[in-house]
From TrEMBL, chain A:
Species of provenance: Rhizopogon vesiculosus
UniProtKB keywords: Endoplasmic reticulum, Glycoprotein, Glycosidase, Hydrolase, Signal
Pathway where it operates: Glycan metabolism; N-glycan metabolism
Pfam families named among the record's database cross-references: Gal_mutarotas_2, Glyco_hydro_31_2nd, Glyco_hydro_31_3rd
Stretches of the chain forming a coiled coil according to its record: none
Domain Glycosyl hydrolase family 31 C-terminal: 711-762
GO terms under biological process: carbohydrate metabolic process; N-glycan processing
Family: Belongs to the glycosyl hydrolase 31 family.
Protein's cellular compartments: Endoplasmic reticulum
MF terms in GO: alpha-glucosidase activity; carbohydrate binding
Domain Glycoside hydrolase family 31 TIM barrel span(s) in chain numbering: 369-703
Protein name (record): Glucosidase II subunit alpha
SUPFAM superfamilies (alphabetical): (Trans)glycosidases, Galactose mutarotase-like, Glycosyl hydrolase domain
UniProtKB/TrEMBL annotation, chain B:
InterPro entries reported in the protein's UniProt record: Gtb1-like, Man6P_isomerase_rcpt-bd_dom_sf, MRH_dom, PRKCSH, PRKCSH_N
Region (Disordered): 277-303
Residues spanning the signal sequence: 1-16
Upper taxonomic lineage: Eukaryota, Fungi, Dikarya, Basidiomycota, Agaricomycotina
PANTHER family found in the cross-reference section: GLUCOSIDASE 2 SUBUNIT BETA, N-LINKED OLIGOSACCHARIDE PROCESSING
Keywords linked to the UniProt accession: Coiled coil, Disulfide bond, Endoplasmic reticulum, Signal
Ranges for domain MRH: 433-538
Protein name: Glucosidase 2 subunit beta
One Gene Ontology cellular component annotation held by this UniProt entry: glucosidase II complex
Coiled coil location: 164-198
GO biological process: N-glycan processing
């Protein structure tokens, strides 16, 4: 026997900084993003000018053309600083009273991206046939609504659109004169001289656009960030728009940000953050728990609420967008939206109740379908269950310990060399048998499929995608974009390419058709996890694709970035459904999302940290997602990074059990933390929490049924339930499940022995207290 | 109307429910009614309560321990009346099975209940005939395996007994040898001491020389410096190894710029090409084999030693015999006032040098010989004393060796049949330091039983220690069969940003000593499974469990 001793090797502790955390330098601030800089500079010029500032945009009254039998009109718009550039405005009132305002440059050098709404909308909304516009000298008006108290006024000069209700301004577009659609120009244009010649004036004349645009041509044609250069072949094309809610003190929505539900100011004296909120789908490593930086998904929908009414604005933009928010002294909110490209396409949702707003938004972008019942149960995940036997072993332990569980997940390590669909046969020699062992008692497996394809010719998925020419192209527009991700050198399917759709569907067939490769080593019940679909590119600018990459039809990546992830989940959802006839309800989990993603499954809040702060902000994020129309949401129980202490893990199980999507997940570097590994009393507490979730499944299923019908969130914040109780408008640490009347207040503080709940005055008769039975033992 | 209909449907099944439905055979005898007065009663198994006999298996939980609802009502309301109960399936034709009562009447046919008794009749087919036959086949196969394995195991035990005998005989022989050697040492010490005692006083005087004292101080300083230097070299090498494995193993271009910077920094310092370029060019030469370019030597100052010379020459200097230098010095500087008495230099080595004496003896002797030749007048006596001292220390060394050997033999004897060592029957002794390996493609995993586990990259490069043997199964008692099914190897090489590597070796009975699977269940914590005949206990040992 040789008992172990220290070998002669000198063992060293590498004292590295323990805080591997969010790298602010990996992501742009507004001041590092050219168009955001220009947008904010425009706003500050306007502010300095005060009342003398006037928008250069105006409607040519003579050009106004009413649609014959519909509540719609079009008109030419001119900009006084570029009189030769033509814009067209299109305003319509939908059958449900929503208003859509579109503006685009016409006959320009190029075409602006105008398809964002097309991907987001369920269908083209019908235009109201009875409402009539009244065209006057200075404006066009329409009055409607059951009480005839809704009025839309389009002012001609300057261009301004206002939605009134009961005589009060609800939403104002371009009220602050920050509307600016940078028209396409040629790079050669030599500056002042041209205008001088054209206008035949003195040599000292300056550019008439300077008062508005500034004089720097800041980052018009090229922009560098860190080691990357964005070639910007189309030049400046950003869109700036101010949207003001003069009579609403609270705004919510625009997920996904790790911040309060009632959005704090980003400009003005009470600004909490120095940067605007950003919408630019990004794989943010160890994101901060309180920050306006963009995260994995983007829904450009903002609700505004007051005791009198709720309204919302859906700003259908797919490019990088920054949103400044300022709460005004007069109990209103001013917002400023700055986007890199795309047309102006704004939907005003008149409310006037929260329910109305959700219904109006649901009519536009659809609702979450009713998921399969099992998808509402408990999901057990880890990066990674390393083998078939590991999966079987974990399932066995759950059964032995009598913990309810319905779904086992496989992260990326199941795939040989991270070639998704291709099992690593050394560790998963019998994938179908393993899956069937899990499915034997109606449990399910969810397996990850990411959008990056390893560039290997022995990988049939890459090979065929390459042969079909459906991969995203580099800025040259030729060949295949190559980036670095989990498998190493990778390429990405361009889901904007119609040729990719049938191809993607064909891959999921569990029986091969026409000898084409398909995932025969799978079953018809397997759910799919779409991760990294921002898309995440390890060696790309801001960990994503270069903006000058080229998609189908020549659109740049910058034009479609925020939609990209939704298309991936969309086609995975459709491919899953197409496995069987009739289709079974698919389950798809996505990390990136956009307006409309709710139609294709669930989302989670990405790679959170195992900290109390992240546990708390995860609740707010799920609430905000619900307001964004994406109710099937949750955060990783236990936190993705780190090893949560038992108390934290137990509290997180409560958070999870009262979230629409309930999954435990953990990073590969963490210790195993399946709930049966806990010591008593924690183990039994978690078992009871899981059982409570299961006994409440009918409540959840009912709430999902409701949202599938009317778009109402599953987790409803305080203000929705008590829309007139001002004191509850900012509350985001407690919520209600569907219309069950159940109030939930998870405890997210270490060592808490008590917590308080907020009860609106007239609430007591509705109150049901729900308390996991064994939790008192923790107290 | 509806309630009546439901009642009518429910009645036949609950009425048909046997009172001992779901009761394991060992408890069946407890499920009999006692008669108290006019009606039949029954006492909960925990004795807490007496209930009506009709309340047993009636789909209502009466007893705190749930013992009144063993059947968990497969025909009942749909949930088990008493939670946390166990339900017993008789599985006639197979062996009985136990499931959680929450699984009874849940619409799913549990594998453990092949007779279908966990669900209302007609829901689950009775598959006990086939399942039982399959099970018996498996049991038979296992018996055969164990039979073969246990034969091999008995040879291991025989080996252990042979080893025991050998070691015992060895111990006896060694004891005799020690006795002889001890006498020898005594005798030689006597001789040496007499030869040396003559000029000790004179040498002591000379040693007071400031030069000699300074020499000793220099020696100590140099020795300390050398030790520090070695420590730094080892540290540098260890850091280099860590950085090399970071460079080879990190996910290039992943979000963590700190890692990338560390890799780049190391590459520039060590003069290595960037690992991404290496990979791109597909020159998959094991990066760990590329030796970091040795640092450019700084401009060597006149007369200063370079690293190579330090390594080579320093030891020589440190090994110099100061006493002989003292005497030589004496010869050169001044004529000896008195006739130098002859003495044995080695007897007056500074104490600190004694331990190294044996290994350097030869070189010292040669120095002494040269010295002797140059100074004939001191040669004879010195040589005489020296050889006496040499003979003594040789004898002492041999004695120590013999004693160590004895100690090892005795320790081995103790371990041999130690339940925490090679097992009660010594069946593991045969496998001591037997190396088993498993090729998993990228790596070969090697476990040398009771010694060390290693991860060896197949494409070249340095291998990592996964730990040294530290214990058997920690959650079982020594001597229990379960105790020998797991071995722990701990404190292997430290993972970057992780724990020390470790291995849990899970063994089962098999006819061969082999590793089957390797899995890294958590970062740097490996689970390796394998087989060994050492775990094939003879069939006679089997406690009858299937026959329950």
């Amino acid at each position: 026997m040789r008992p172990s001793g220290f070998s002669g090797t000198l063992l060293l502790l590498l004292l590295l900084p323990a805080t591997l955390a969010f790298k602010a330098s990996d992501f742009k601030t507004c001041s590092e993003s050219g168009f955001c800089r220009r947008g904010r500079a425009l706003a500050s010029r306007a502010q300095e000018s005060g009342t003398s500032w006037n928008s250069p945009y105006s409607i040519e009254p003579s050009s106004l053309s009413l649609a014959p039998h519909q509540a719609a009109f079009t008109a030419d718009v001119k900009s006084s600083i570029y009189p030769s550039v033509k814009f067209n405005l299109d305003v319509r009132i939908h059958e449900d009273g929503g208003v859509r305002v579109r503006m685009d440059e016409v006959d320009g050098l190029r075409k602006r991206y105008d398809q964002a709404a097309q991907w987001a909308l369920l269908e083209e909304p019908s235009i109201h046939r009875d409402i009539r516009w009244t065209v006057g000298k200075a404006n066009a008006k329409a009055v409607y609504g059951p009480k005839k108290d809704i009025e839309v006024v389009v002012n001609f000069n300057p261009l301004k659109v206002t939605l009134f209700q009961g005589g009060k301004e609800q939403v104002v577009l371009n009220g602050r004169g920050l509307l600016h659609m940078e028209h396409f120009r040629t790079k050669e244009v030599s500056q002042p001289e041209e205008h001088i010649e054209a206008e035949g004036q003195t040599v000292l004349q300056v550019d008439p656009a300077v008062w508005f645009e500034g004089d720097s041509q800041d980052a018009w044609w090229e922009e560098t960030f860190s080691s990357w250069t964005d070639s910007k072949p189309k030049g400046p094309e950003s869109l700036s728009l101010d949207i003001t809610f003069p009579n609403h003190a609270h705004v919510y929505g625009i997920p996904q940000h790790a911040t309060d539900l009632s959005l704090p100011s980003t400009s003005g004296p009470d600004a909490r953050y120095t940067d605007p909120f950003r919408l630019y789908n990004a794989d943010v490593f160890e994101y901060l728990a309180d920050s306006p930086v963009s995260l994995y998904g983007s829904i450009p929908l903002m609700h505004a609420h007051s005791p009198q009414s709720t309204v919302a604005v859906f700003n259908a933009l797919a490019s990088e967008t920054w949103i400044d928010i300022a709460h005004t002294d007069k109990k209103g909110v001013e917002t400023h939206w700055i986007s890199e490209s795309g047309i102006l396409d704004v939907f005003l949702l008149p409310g006037p109740t929260p329910e109305d707003v959700f219904a109006q938004y649901a009519r536009l972008t659809g609702t979450a379908p009713l998921p399969a019942h099992w998808a509402l149960a408990y999901h057990q995940c880890r990066w990674n269950y390393v083998s078939s036997d590991d999966v079987r072993g974990v399932q066995k332990r759950f059964d032995e310990e009598d913990f309810p569980v319905d779904v086992f997940w496989l992260d990326i390590e199941y795939a040989e060399d991270h070639k998704y669909f291709m099992w690593n046969k050394k560790t998963f020699p019998d994938p179908v048998e393993m899956t069937k062992d899990v499915e034997a008692i109606e449990r399910k497996m969810v397996v990850i499929v990411d959008p990056h394809l390893k560039r290997a010719n022995d990988y049939p998925v890459y090979k065929r995608a390459s042969d079909l020419g459906i991969l995203v192209k580099p800025k040259s527009g030729e060949g295949e974009y190559e980036g670095w991700c989990w498998p190493g050198s990778s390429s990405w399917i361009d889901f904007f390419h119609p040729g990719s759709w049938d191809f993607w569907t064909s891959l999921f067939k569990t029986k091969s058709i026409d000898e084409q490769w398909s995932w025969t080593e799978s079953t018809d019940n397997v759910g799919i996890w779409n991760d990294m679909n921002e898309p995440s590119v390890f060696n790309g600018p801001e960990i994503t694709m270069p903006k000058d990459n080229v998609h189908y039809d020549g659109w740049e990546h910058r034009d479609v970035h925020n939609i990209n992830g939704m298309l991936f989940a969309n086609h995975t959802y459709q491919a899953s459904a197409a496995r069987t006839d009739p289709p079974r309800r698919p389950f798809v989990l996505t990390r990136a999302f956009y307006a409309g993603s709710q139609r294709f499954g669930a989302m989670w809040t990405g790679d959170n940290l195992g900290t109390w702060e992240h546990m708390a902000v995860g609740i707010k994020m799920v609430l905000a997602n619900g307001l964004g129309g994406m109710p099937f949401a949750g955060s990783d129980v236990g936190g993705f990074f780190g090893n949560p202490e038992p108390e934290m893990l137990v509290r997180w199980y409560v958070v999870g059990a009262f979230s629409p999507f309930f999954r435990a997940h953990a990073h590969i570097d963490t210790k195993r933390r399946e709930p049966y590994l806990l010591d008593e009393p924690y183990k039994s507490i978690v078992r009871d929490i899981l059982r409570l979730r299961y006994s409440m499944l009918p409540v959840w299923y009912t709430a999902f049924r409701e949202t599938s019908a009317n778009g109402m969130p599953i987790l409803r914040p305080q203000y929705m339930m008590f829309p007139k109780d001002v004191a509850g408008f900012g509350i985001d640490d407690q919520y209600y499940i569907g219309s069950s009347g159940l109030l939930v207040k998870p405890v997210t503080e270490k060592g808490a022995k008590e917590t308080s709940i907020y009860i609106a005055e007239d609430q007591v008769r509705l109150l049901r207290l729900l308390h996991p039975p064994r939790l008192p033992r923790l107290l | 109307m509806y309630p009546w209909l439901l009642l009518a449907l429910a009645l036949p099944s609950s009425a048909a429910l046997d009172k001992t439905h779901g009761v394991p055979p060992s408890l069946v005898s407890k499920y009999v009614p006692s008669t108290t007065g006019a009606h039949q009663t029954w006492t909960c198994l925990d004795g807490s309560k007496q209930i009506s006999w009709s309340a047993v298996n009636d789909d209502y939980c009466d007893c705190a321990d749930g013992s009144d609802e063993p059947g968990a009502s497969p025909g009942g309301s749909g949930t088990s009346a008493c939670p946390h109960n166990k339900f017993y399936c008789r599985n006639e034709g197979h062996i009985g099975g136990v499931i959680q009562s929450s699984r009874v009447n849940d619409g799913l046919c549990e594998q453990e209940c092949c007779d279908g008794s966990d669900e209302p009749s007609g829901v689950c087919p009775n598959t006990c005939q086939e399942v039982g036959a399959e099970h018996r086949k498996e049991v038979e196969a296992e018996r055969k395996l164990r039979k073969t394995g246990s034969k091999i195991r008995s040879t291991y035990i025989a080996y252990a007994h042979k080893e025991k005998k050998r070691l015992e005989a060895l111990a006896i022989d060694l004891a005799k040898e020690i006795e002889v050697r001890e006498k020898e040492v005594e005798k030689l010490r006597d001789i040496a001491e007499r030869a040396e005692s003559i000029s000790a006083a004179e040498l002591e005087r000379k040693k007071q020389s400031p030069l000699y004292q300074s020499l000793l101080a220099h020696h100590t300083a140099l020795k300390s410096l050398q030790k520090e230097h070695k420590k730094h070299l080892e540290r540098e090498k260890a850091l280099g190894d860590i950085l090399n494995s970071l460079r080879a193993g990190y996910n290039p271009n992943y979000q963590d710029m700190a890692v990338l910077e560390a890799v780049r920094g190391w590459e520039s310092l060590a003069g290595l090409p960037h690992i991404n370029d290496v990979r791109k060019d597909d020159t998959e030469t094991g990066t760990a084999t590329e030796k970091p370019k040795t640092e450019e030597e700084e401009d060597e100052e006149e007369g200063f030693w370079n690293a190579a010379k330090i390594e080579k020459e320093l030891d020589k200097i440190l090994k110099a015999d100061h006493v002989s230098l003292l005497l030589e010095h004496d010869q050169i500087i001044g004529p000896a006032s008195t006739h130098s008495l002859l003495f044995d230099i080695s007897a007056y080595l500074p104490d600190a040098l004694i331990p190294s004496y044996h290994s350097f003896r030869d070189s010292i002797v040669s120095v002494l010989t040269i010295f002797g030749i140059g100074h004939g007048d001191t040669r004879d006596a010195s040589a005489e004393s020296n050889s006496a001292r040499k003979a003594l220390s040789d004898a002492e060394h041999s004695l120590k060796m013999t004693r160590d050997e004895t100690q090892d033999a005795n320790q081995d004897l103790l371990d041999l049949f130690d339940p925490e060592g090679f097992g009660v029957e010594g069946e593991w002794k045969k496998l001591d330091d037997l190396c088993l390996s498993k090729d998993t493609g990228e790596y070969t995993y090697e476990v040398c039983l009771f010694n060390e586990a290693k991860q060896i990259p197949n494409k070249g490069g340095s291998s990592f220690s996964l730990g040294k043997f530290s214990s058997w199964n920690k959650v079982a008692q020594p001597g229990e069969p379960e105790y020998y099914t797991r071995q722990h190897y701990t404190l292997g090489a430290k993972c970057w940003n992780g724990p020390h590597r470790s291995v849990e070796l899970v063994l089962a009975c098999g006819t061969e000593n082999a590793l089957l699977t390797v899995a890294e269940l958590e970062k740097c914590e490996y689970q390796i499974t394998g087989t060994t005949p050492a775990l094939c206990r003879p069939l006679e040992d089997e406690r009858p469990k299937d026959e329950l």
